[in-house]
Amino acid sequence: MKAYATQSIRNVGIAGHGDTGKTQLVSSLLFTAGMTTRLGKVAEGSTVTDWDEEEIARKITIHTGQAYAEWAPSPHPETSPVWTAEKAPDKTPEKIKINFLDTPGHSTFLNDTRAALVAADAALILVDALAGVQVGTEKVWDYATEYDLPRAFAINWMDRELANFDHAMESIVHVFGRNVVPLQLPIGAEKSFRGVVDLITMKAHVYTPDGDGTRKIEEIPADLAEAAKTAHEALVEMVAEGDDALMEEFFEKGTLPMEDLMKGLRDAFFAKRIYPVVLTSALHNIGTATLLDLMAEVFPHPAKRGLAIGHSETASKGSEVQRRITDSEPVSIFVYKTLADAFSGRVSYFKVMSGVLKNDATLQNFTRGTSERLQHIQVMQGKTATGVPELHAGDLGAIAKLKDTLTGDTLGDKAAPIHYPLPHLPEPSITFAVEPKTRADEDRIGPAIHKILEEDPSLHFSRDPQTKEFLLAGSGQQHIEIVVAKLHKRYHVDLTLHPPKVPYRETIRGKADAEGKHKKQTGGHGQFGVCRIRMEPAVRGAGIEFVDDIFGGAIPKNWIPSVEKGIRASAERGYLAGFPVVDFRATLYDGKYHDVDSSDMAFKIAGSLAFKEAMKQAKPALLEPVMHVEVYAPDQFSGDIMGDLSSRRGRISGSEARGPSVVIKAQVPFAEMLNYATTLTSLTQGRASHSMEFSHYDYVPGEIAEKVIAAAKAARGVVVEEEEG
């Protein structure tokens, strides 16, 4: 495998709603480019990028898969940036390396998509030719916007029954605006879909029906000539619109020469003034060669994106550090993904942000403060690794068995430190209690879950200090079920899942002034500590704020942290029902001590007693997580869906038409959403989908709070009895 220069690299994130054919399209692109000897199919479990056992069994993408194609675009020397003026049309053009990031589309696994797109330089968003824009389409668009990526659309499954190009285009334009412009028109419809009209070259690209990706470039069929002419004129006008020189040429000539049109399209795509649309049939391998040409000729190389921005101290602190994405800068890499492989150990996937990474290099891990030797750097074709001598700025690679490196770490030249920012991932939306089936499983769960956590930063694992239960939190029930299946298959750890627990919190609505006094005489040194605190509510999300307002040495400085520890420990244990107390300010303003009998422990206990006394006065209240819910469904079901969400104490925040469908947005308490997926399937005959992410905490209504508190106290009582027994 040769090392490609930065200008010959394209990093493309393949994203979209679930079941739009992302993995199948990548498989077809690889086959068309000659990277595989047969066309892998999702239904057969033979695709390159879905190789995990769970992905094959469930026929969905769970982790972002990485693959690459080497592609020489069609010979259009007057339009292609990879051709030079000296090259004759009969010469072979330079090959381009296209790195594909095949990302998950199901809402449960979109966190992985968000994290992986940091390595992309452009996004291709797939849209179902029948369904049009869906909830996941908008989600991945937002992620691409967050990373400032140029993006194009591929309307996929054009060969399927009821596939409709006009409706799909109307849906995309309605949601994302008039800058969405088709580069192609379909030749044939549904089962007779056999190719596309290229609106740039004004030629027909007709594909063979056997799925080998072979195309013939012909004249446009007569019945499409008028529509193609109109669409070509609209494309030319859109390209010229944002460029004064092109607009002047357009007004003079009424059109643009192909070389100017291509250059204008390239510039407009990079500037996000145009979002081009192409057409594909991933399963029958139609449109793939034309799409590879587009990626090679129009999508930007990494250096074109300008500067990589980091910080001097951590991923978010210190002075800003800028790096040009070129070979001449000091080497730096960003680890965007980690996989725990049973044979290779930990595999770190990275992007070379600057410089040239050579095999056997020793780099500093700036995040961990350690050094790592990078032996055997590789490029990944799904799960197959190929060694390379070096990787240039902007390229993607992988390395196995690094000692300390994890997802989100920056490594580089020790003399030129930089920390690249981490992607923001939302908090887990669902928590399950997991119970090891045997004592052996309990002993093995720690090391096993630690390896799973390394490859999935959106997963949280903890142990409830009150119930002693293991808690596994993720983005959805399916997410947790897959983790449990992995633990069984990889590490032979068997767990039982219990219904998810709602992560309630406690807080205060009023102010309080309280004293905590701990005095004990047992012979010899006693224990003595007195502290006085004021408590008041803080803004939502503030957590716990401790203020030291001691004057005159009422409590010596060395014991003030002990008071804080006592307050925080009691807050963690809860007051009303054993849920952590949050969003309050505790101000320590007075106290007493004894020269002999006072100690850290005495003041920690005093702080705890003061907290409990203050909670009696401060109008304690229960908080519950409220989720931002989006439901995508056919319009005919909107009334039933809104009624059901309202019955769940939901507040409808809006709805928006998407052609024949509707997106309903609401804020709903998490406690009311535990069985929602089943209900939604029943309400809509399985034709709806929903996404859910944490929004904020809010007060639980009084009557419901009483039931929650009573149930929590009863459960804690059972635990206490078991422990005492």
What does this structure look like?
With about 725 residues, this protein is α+β, with helices and mostly antiparallel strands. It has five domains: about 300 residues, Rossmann fold, CATH 3.40.50; about 110 residues, Elongation Factor Tu (Ef-tu), domain 3; about 70 residues, Elongation Factor G (Translational Gtpase), domain 3 (Alpha-Beta Plaits), CATH 3.30.70; about 110 residues, Ribosomal Protein S5, domain 2 (2-Layer Sandwich); about 80 residues, 2-Layer Sandwich (Alpha-Beta Plaits). The chain has 16 helices and 36 strands. The longest helix has 23 residues.
Helix content: 25-40%
Q: Tell me the overall shape.
A: globular
Low-confidence stretches: 77-91, 718-725
N-to-C CA distance: 66 Å
Strand-pairing-aware structural class = alpha+beta
**What is the beta-strand fraction?**
25-35%
The third-level CATH topology of the largest domain is Rossmann fold
CATH superfamily caption of the largest domain: P-loop containing nucleotide triphosphate hydrolases
Number of domains: 5
Total count of strands: 36
Average pLDDT number? 89
Number of helices: 16
Provide the gyration radius in Å. Answer: 30 Å
Top CATH class of the largest domain: Alpha Beta
Strand order across the biggest sheet?
2-3-1-4-5-11-6
The second-level CATH architecture of the largest domain is: 3-Layer(aba) Sandwich
Largest sheet: 7 strands, mixed
